[in-house]
Design brief:
By secondary structure, the chain is an alpha+beta fold. The protein is built from nine helices and 21 strands. It starts with a helix and ends with a strand.
Length: 373
Amino acid sequence: MKKIGEKITKPVILSSIFGLLAAMVGTFAIISFYMPGGIFEKNIDTENQTQELLKTSLGIKAYGRLEVFEFLDKALPSVAGIYKKKTATTLIDSLYLEKDRLGFGFVLTSDGWIVTDASAIDGWSVKALTVSIGNVLYNVEDKVNDAWTDVVFLKLDAKKLPVISLGDSEAVQLGDVVFSGSGKNNFWFNYVNAINFYPNKTSKGELLLSSEEFGKVIKLQGDIPIELDGGMMANRFGEVIGIAVAGKNQNYIIPINYFKGVVNSVLKDRRVERPYLGVNYIDLSFALGSDLPNESGAYVYGGGLLRSVEAGSPAAQAGLSTGDTILAVENTNINEYKNLSEIIYEYKPGDEITLKILREGEEREIKAKLGSK
């Protein structure tokens, strides 16, 4: 019996070892195939891609849970391709090719509202545009611009479109995987490298922020392909967390929370309505200098033709002036996590807010009634 047991045990052990080795080889083969930063089609170029990245536990976790398939199932059907409308009379000349595409967007409502970025439509009028969803082309009826974010809402002549869910960009964390794609079963992914990120400032004027612009974006580890400009960026649950901006000098994600709150006014009144304070400032949480009045807050400042406080604005009526530092709005402090604009956005036009300010070394409170813009 002992010899029989030995004969049985050895093949079992050897089979287990070879099975484990085969599984490991297969796993790393798959991981080597799905490299971040490329659009996956039939011919895949992995020569210049960083293979070490997906060998981390994060990469194994992402694909071990088949998150990509959840994205493909929930998000890709809502991808919209934006084209300049063709007027050719011959069939071959009227066909739309990938090289003709201006950019991407995604479906917001089943009755034809889609979202994209201003750079993706390149200034064209609604009559000059056509949008593809699936294999169907739709005419564009209307356009609504959001000056705060450069997001554009397009209304299509369409019904029963596949709608994608909106996520929460504040829930995005460093190292999260984000997905995008072209709607042709091709997808692209990368990792979040920075949140609460100001795009690189190259001039003194760019250091000044307006209370009517957010300024902050989400940055990825690698550049977003220019082909995906205006397209959605989704989390592992297939929810949109932002819009891709992929131009020559711009490469980042506009967080979804920056424009999610204006959707109702767009759908109802076909316009964007946001609260208005009317002040320009330096975000002290991200400023470096020896003469700054505080480590955080919004330092009211202007220069050249740009006034620190807009004439006739709620800020002017409240008595804000150059050199004031706004420390908090109501009970919310202005810091590296939330700047002045992000906090103001949480209120509605007509709301009266209390601003805690630092003026000539003394803290005081003033009230301001927000306008609409």
